[in-house]
Amino acid sequence: MNIYNTLTKKIETFTPNEEGIVRLYTCGPTVYHYAHIGNLRTYIFEDILEKGLEYLGYEVLRVMNITDVGHLTSDADSGEDKMKIASAREHKSVYDIAKFYTNAFFQDCSKLNIRKPAIVEKASDHIDTYIKMISKMLEEGYAYLSNGNVYFDITKANNYYELSGKNPEDLMIGVRDTVEEDKYKRNPGDFVLWFTTSKFENQDMKWDSPWGIGYPGWHIECSGISGKYLGEYLDIHCGGVDNIFPHHTNEIAQSEAYFGHKWCNYWIHGEHLNDQSGKMSKSKGEFLTVSLLEERGYNPLSYRYFCLNSHYRNQLTFTWEALKSAETAYIKLKSKIKQLNRTPNLSDKKLDFYQNKFKEALGNDLNTSSMLTLVYDVLKDEELSDFTKLYLIDDFDKVLSLSLIEEPKEVSEELEELILAKIKQRNEAKKNKDFALADKIRDELFEKGVKLIDSKKGTTYELI
Ligand code: AMP
Ligand code: ZN
Questions:
Q1: What is the reported pLDDT for 157?
Q2: Do 42 and 285 touch, CB atoms closer than 8 A?
Q3: Which of 216, 385, 417, 429 could form a disulfide with 345 if both were Cys (CB 3.0 to 4.6 A apart)?
Q4: How far is the centre of ligand 1, averaged over its atoms, from the C-alpha of 39 (Å)?
C-alpha cells in the first residue's frame, strides 16, 4: 500500500515492523456530546484503512481510546470544563455523561458500518500507566514539576516540530492575545502531563498521584493506552488533521522520551468536513449528527457513500443538496445490484483483473472514489455473469462497507404462520370496517420487521 505519511510529507510504501501484522492506533472521541458527521468522516476513513489493510492480507491490531478525562489542550482552553458543562446541562454525573455519549458514538458508527476497534479503552481506566510514564520522564529530565503540575519540556524532545512541519514562531502566531500564558512553564510550548492545579479546579474525576490529587493531561492518554496494548513500536497512528498539532506532536515527544527510541513510523491524517460556514465543530452550537440525517429521512449509509466519493486528504463541504445527490446515486446503485440474477454461475475470468484493480486503487493512497468506480465498471461489464458481478461487489464491499448486497431475509415457519394469520385477521377487520384494528395489526407487524403490501390481488408482505 502506498500512503501519505504526514511525518515525511511523502507518499510512501507501507512496511510494518512485523511482517503481516499492523499495529494501528486511532484517536477516539471526546464524549461530552454527540459526534458530529465531521468527526465521523475521520472514523470512516480509518475504517477504510483498517479494512483495506485486511483486504491486502494484513492482520490488523487496532486500538482506540475514549477521551472521558483530560481533554485540556493548551493555554487557550477557556471557560468551564466540557464534561462539567455537559453534566450540568443534563443533570447527570460526568461518568454517566461519558457512558451515554460513548454508547451514542458506537451506535452512530454502527449505522455507518464503521467497525468497532477490537480494543477500545477509556482514558480514565489507565491512570496507573500514565503515572508510571510521567515518573520515568521526571526521573530522566524530560519533565519537571512546577506549581504542582508536571510539564513536559519540549526542548528535550528530539525534533519536536517534525510532524507539524512548523517552527516555534509559526506556532506562537496562533496564540490569542487574550490567552493568559501559564507562567509556571519553562518554555511557552511545554505541555502538562499531570494537573494538580488548573483553571478547572472543580473536576469530578481526580486521582491520587505522587504529585498530589489531580488528573492527567490530554496527550498522555494516547501514548499510555497505545503503549500498553500495542507495545513500544507502532506502525500507524491516525486522526483528523487538527490532531497533528499539538496532540500528535506531543504524543510523539512523550512516547519517544519514555521508550527511548522512535515510536511510530506512519502518521495518517484525514482532512476535515466543513459546513458552508467553515470547519464543523462541536463548540459551534447546533451541529450535524447522524440522528439529524435520519430525521431528515436519509439513510446514514448515503453519508458514507458521500464521503467515499472524495479523497480523505481533501477537504469536503457538506450541503444537503450534495447529500441528496449522493443518496440518489446510492439508491440507484443498490437497485441495479438487486436486479442481478443470484443463480450460482461464477467464472474465474476477469476475477483477478478486477480484484487487482481494486487493490491498486486501495494502494493508491486509499483512492475510495476509484474503488467505487470499479463497482460501476463491474456492473457494466458484459463479459461477467450476474453471479460473478455479485461475487466481486460483495468482495469490494468488505472494504467499502456500503451494504451493497443485502441477503434476501429468510422467514421461519413460525413467523410465516403468524404473518398469514394476522393478514387473515386484518382482512376480516377491514370487512367489518374496523379500520383501527386493521391499522393496529399492520403496525404491530411493522414493529416485528414485517411490511404489509396491499394490492388488488390481496395482501403480501416483505421483511425489512
Ligand atoms: P473529538 O471528539 O473532538 O476529539 O474528535 C474526534 C475526531 O474527529 C478526531 O480525530 C478529530 O481530528 C476529528 N475531527 C474533528 N473535527 C473534524 C471535522 N470537521 N472533520 C473531520 N474530522 C474532524
Ligand atoms: Zn490521541
A1: 95
A2: no
A3: 385
A4: 4
